[in-house]
Amino acid sequence: MALNTSKSAMQTIGNYELLEKVAEGGMGSVWRARHLETGQIVAIKIMPAHMASNATLLKRFEQEFRAASRLDHPNIVRALDYADTGSTPYLVMEFVEGESLGQKIERDGRMPEAEAIRIIAKVAQGLHRAHEQGIIHRDVKPDNVLVQPDGVAKLADLGLVKETEADLNLTKTGRGLGTPHFMAPEQFRSAKDADVRADIYSLGATLYMMVTGELPFKSNGPLDAWMKKMNNDLVPPRQLVPDISERTDWAIRRAMSPNRDQRPSTCREFVEDLTGHSTKRIPQLQAAADQDLWYLVYKDDQGVMHTVKGGTSAIRRSLKEGLLGDASNVRASRAKTGPFEHLRDYPEFRDMIVAPMPASVPSLGGSSAVNPALPLNAQGSQSRRGRTTQDIPGPGARPAPAAPHIDMGDDRPTSVEWLKWIMLPLVAVLSALLARLLFSK
């Protein structure tokens, strides 16, 4: 049955009554609708008849249903049905009560950082599932993230989706698809070459707007936006909102690196960058993780290998102060027996080792005096390579004298240690009183 738009009858399409238009997009209008027999409330995307005559666009519309129907995840809008009346193709989807992030930001401005990270982490989980099934979204942006009243976030609109294993060649080399402010720079040249890291770029750009309330790379057109992206002419989030944490600022800028090789390789890694904690739990190392204990191996200036241990904050402080020399050569493990991995493999320390490309570089292949693979604090400390201490000092303590290697201990005092410090003065006072009584006699 074709779309009925007569005033004397309700508007229907197929077995659905159209209740109200809720959105208008590049691939058609979206309506809230009700199934005529079951009464189920759904969302229906209707493709205009003049677009349905375009074989490529029609194929892309069908592909959206196939992709969405394969994805069963609480953070992705489910696809329920696809039909074609002969001149009006339509897609039936789960109806999400709530609003888009774009609408929320437009109304309320920037979001609290903790809330923004919670929402983007949920979206990343859904996107990670899509990537596991070989699906690239290619149009992640605030308007395509729906947030329910209970706070559940769902990624919608897979209209530009790309199936990596069975590309239908719906895009041609040199043709970009997506929204300029949020899509990766490589998509401007060829959407066909977009991979997982293009979606991660868009996740970072979406989070940028969530925590700052500003569009990344403000521009007047796609060409200007592309040039700014290629030159990494991005205003750091903390420059706009100083209250944003250093970690979130770093995670966003790393995800939005012009060179995709410098971005997180998975959505899981992006979430780890934001939280500073691993998304994986290894049972045999759980106890060590709960105790916040790490073992490090490194070579001193004489090439002798050493194993040391310490807590997360002590190691981070040592890295920041350059006490570990060339941090890129340090390996770590939760277990004394290993396996030992590079510090960049651990979210707890990755922000101390990996940095996005410096801002305003002339080109992706241009040289720079600063190594973009290392954070500025690590590079600035390389001149102090080989500086060591026998013990990493605790908060407020003076650095210990130099020694051949570092012996780091957990800098967090235990309850027993605190008790000792409290009891020592008391014991001293009691001893003095007892001595006075004895000698007075």
Characteristic key phrases:
single chain; 441 residues; alpha+beta; Phosphorylase Kinase, domain 1; Transferase(Phosphotransferase), domain 1; 4 domains; six-stranded antiparallel beta sheet; four-stranded antiparallel beta sheet; 15 helices; 15 strands; 35% helix
Detailed description of the structure:
- This protein has 441 residues and is α+β, with helices and mostly antiparallel strands.
- The protein has four domains: 12-94, Phosphorylase Kinase, domain 1; 99-275, Transferase(Phosphotransferase), domain 1, CATH 1.10.510.10; 283-410, no CATH class; 416-441.
- 35% of the residues lie in helices and 15% in strands.
Instruction: Enumerate the spans where pLDDT stays under 50 for 5 or more consecutive residues.
Output: 163-178, 361-422
Structural class: alpha+beta
Q: Return the average pLDDT rounded to an integer.
A: 75
Task: Give the overall silhouette.
Answer: elongated
Determine and state the CATH class of the largest domain.
Answer: Mainly Alpha
Main beta sheet, described?
A: 6 strands, antiparallel
Please bin the fraction of helical residues. Answer: 25-40%
CATH architectural type of the largest domain: Orthogonal Bundle
Order of neighbouring strands in the sheet with most strands: 1-2-3-4-6-5
Q: What is the assigned CATH homologous superfamily of the largest domain? A: Transferase(Phosphotransferase) domain 1
Give the ordered list of helices and strands.
EEEEHHEEEHHEEEEHHHHHHHEEHEEHHH
| Rg result | 28 Å
Count of discrete alpha- or pi-helical segments spanning 4 or more residues: 15
- The CATH topology of the largest domain turns out to be Transferase(Phosphotransferase), domain 1
Q: Which band does the percent of strand residues land in?
A: 15-25%
Distance between the termini: 113 Å
Secondary structure: number of strands: 15
Number of domains: 4
